[in-house]
Amino acid sequence: MGLLLIHGGKSIRMSKDNFRKRNNGTKRSCFKEIMQGLGGKNITIISSVVIAALFVIILLVMFIKSPVFIAWRENGSETQVASEEMAAGEETMNVASGEEDMPVVETATEGMKAESTPDTTVLAKKENAKDGYLNRCVFLGDSRTVAMVNYGFFNDDAALAQIGISHPAFASNKFINNAGKEYTLKSYLSSHQAPVIYILLGVNGINDSSESHYQNTFISLIDSVAKMAPNSNIVLVAIGPVDDNGIYKNSVQNAWIDKYNAFLLETARQKHIFYLDIAEILKGSNGQVKPEYNGGDGLHYSGKGCEAIFRYIVEHPVPGISDEGKYVVKYIKPDPNRMKVTMDDGSGIDEGKIQDLMDMMMGTPENQTASDASTESSSETEEELEKKKAEEEKKKAEEEKKKAEEEKKKAEEEKKKAEEEKKKKAEEEKKAEEEKKKAEEEKKKAEEEEKKKAEEEKKKAEEEQKKAEEEKKKAEEEEQKKAEEEKKKAEEEEQKKAEEEKKKAEEEEKKKVEEENKEESEKKEGEKEENGNSGNSAGEALEGSAGHSEEETVNNP
């Protein structure tokens, strides 16, 4: 039995027995002898050829993944039907007989699409809801949706899903269902434009380091679905909770899920589409997935968990979509030869966990909700079942033996690796200690230089301040001296001017008195001439007057 893996854009077919790498001591010894026999020159030539071949393969893969090639491939056929060959001696599924009574999903017609409102974005519970609603729904999802098909809750043809697929890779991926039909998102929606399209993605790649990349690629996917199915109602399904201590704890945590569920709800509101909060029934009071719904790895859900999701979808339908009619599940058992797995960075799956995951995904239905659900085994005889069971048990025993050997080998490798890592860690610690010591010395040196520089700058600043103060003081003294000299000069000039004015006034006064005396004298002389010698009394009076004038002249120079 084989397994088809999608890894880094390449499809690799391998059997389960050869799925994990196998190397024993004999092979290593032979390889060592061959390498020694080849010689250095031949090894160089072979290495060059291998590198060149790898380069050609990488170019080919890049071309196959290019938009031009994808568009050409998709335009060739809207719906691609798989025709993979089964391994020799393996059982081949009768696809035709499974398709004869395969339920057909109803196609949306114009007017079925409704825009959500703030009150209807989150789908509410409907009383007495019927399973017939599922005849009008298709589901786009990852391994959790694959489990819903494999447990018999969704019809195989009503789901486009793949293990490990993340929403950024969904639009360009190629899918194959249990019946062997092969689709792309474009070819699937061209023939499956149901009244309701559920998008159950987001858990793979939730540890994306770029929040904007996660959100933008999700919005791009929603827009693509809306464009391809214009009459369909789109429902964003909440990302279900996990066990934070499960084996995928490094890839997904409930805190991340809560953050992106808030983003999905807000996106649904902005785009007027719908939001289904399945986390409401799956999450326990401690914020983790309920134990009865845990499939065992903390990420995937048990049969009871899938049943709870199924019932929640039925009870919370899109308003206006009929739930009449009988819902029938045609169960098709999954075939590991067809089952595809994505193991890129977005899936969060590694090779060591793939076998357990595949075993979980291959489980038969634990709970059948459809009234006439049937299994492929119904057409087999008891003898065939016993024979098949014996073969499976034998194979299982061989696989367990092989697994034990691989685990033993792995344990030895891990021990060796641990010792190497321990040695490497010790060297790194020593190196880190030396670097730390060096860093401390450099820091100390830098601090001393900084301190010295600061002291020099401080001293220089003080000297400059002192010099400035001295210059300021000198300038003030010179200014004061100059002001005093100017003041003294002004006072001297004022005093000189005052003395000159005083002297001038005195001279003018003296001149005035002299003129007055002269006039008086002339007047008296005139009177004397007129009166002559009129008597002694007049003369005396004249002498007295003259004497008096002389006194005034003396007293008032």
UniProtKB/TrEMBL annotation:
GO terms for molecular function: hydrolase activity. The chain crosses the membrane at residues 43-64. InterPro entries: SGNH_hydro (IPR013830), SGNH_hydro_sf (IPR036514). Residues 369-378 have a biased composition (Low complexity). Residues 385-531 have a biased composition (Basic and acidic residues). Residues 364-557 are annotated as: Disordered. This is GDSL-family lipase/acylhydrolase.
